[in-house]
Amino acid sequence: MKKLAPRVLFRNLLIEIVIYSILIFAYYLVVLRWLDDWLMSLFQNNLIFYTVTGLSLIVIQAAFLDFVTSFILKYIKLDQFGIRRILDVFSDR
Amino acid sequence: MYFPIADVTISPILLMSVGFLVGILGGFFGVGGGFLAGPMMFWSGVPMNFVIGTDLAHMTGKSIVAARRHRALGHVDFKLGMFMVAGTIVGVEIGARIIEALQDSGAIDMTIGVTYIVILVIISLFTGWESIKAIQMVRTDQIDVHEAVGFKGLSKKIRSIKIPPMVSFPVSGIESISIWIVLGVGLFTGLLAGSLGVGGGFIRMPMLVYVLGIPTHVAVGTDLFEIIFSSGFGTITHGLKGNVDILMALVMQTGAVIGAQIGATATRFFAGPRIRLAFSVLPLIGAALVVVRLLGSGMMH
Predict the structure, then answer these.
(1) Count of C-beta atoms within a 10 Å radius of residue B131
(2) Nearest-CA distance from A60 to chain B in Å?
(3) Can you list the alpha helix ranges (DSSP code H) found in A31-82?
(4) Per DSSP, what are the bridge partners of residue B174?
(5) Which residues of B touch A6 (CB under 8 A)?
(6) What ipTM was predicted for this assembly?
(7) Chain centre to alpha carbon of residue A3
(8) Any chain B CB within 8 A of the CB of A65?
(9) Closest to A65 (Cβ–Cβ): which among B3, B240, B257?
(10) Residue B2 in 3-state DSSP?
């Protein structure tokens, strides 16, 4: 069972990347592309506030994305996905 | 996508990909990845003054995620990390002031560049030699692969220095060590980082293994924990000078986060000597990029 762990992990990560890419694309469309004007006005008017806000956004986004990736791995039951059968074709089990 | 702060148009997919690549390297080796992300951003068209600051900003977020994953695996020594942070920040400040003082002397780029190349090549050769020796020791002496270090002499001597106060780091397997040694290692790596203009993960990770004698996995996790503070500090410094494009950093971070998780998780499946052997290639890449930069600036002049 232990020997299988890396392959299972790799498979789960592969699925995670696909799901994550879709979510990130949605996140980009809904959030990131609308931030430019607001950040630009902060940058031009108050560099201290811009820096503090920027670092806060980085930390908040890191926590959020960490939660998303952990959620995908832990709570979406990857083993129940039909894709497992497809991936099993490529495994040597 | 147009980034108005840096006044440049770059594909967000390219930025995410750069973040993803350096995220994997960062999570696996405990380095910030600035040596790779910096040139890639520059070649993508990001103005030079925004390259370092923006890279540091995305590094902060990526290191948070990678360090969290390493913490879950038991690879982060928070106590050691905090002591190292104190030494590193002082070292970075001293290094930056040395650079300011040397700037009048003229050929500072060449001096720093050559010093950087020499240090990186030495680290690369030494880490490569040691890890191969450790792998051979595992095969011939039948020792536990997790304990295999081909060069333990220095850390033994360092630990025998008894200058009070002495501290212990149970997570790293250090029963007793002088606090001044730990602060000194932090100061030294910070000094090099501050004077060479790099994050310092290249230098810190091998020093944690060979000088303090801590296991490779803990060195990687603790280094990432420290990078959160050192790159966060750098982000503030560069941000106040107007050299950070936060939007660009946020886009890069979306790729870096998943890469960092993959890299951090992958360390579970490799023993210390293998990680160090793979690591030994990285400083050579960094050195090659500096050579390219120096040749490029030489041609311009």
Answers:
(1) 25
(2) 9
(3) 36-45, 47-74
(4) B169
(5) 269
(6) 0.80
(7) 27
(8) yes
(9) B257
(10) strand
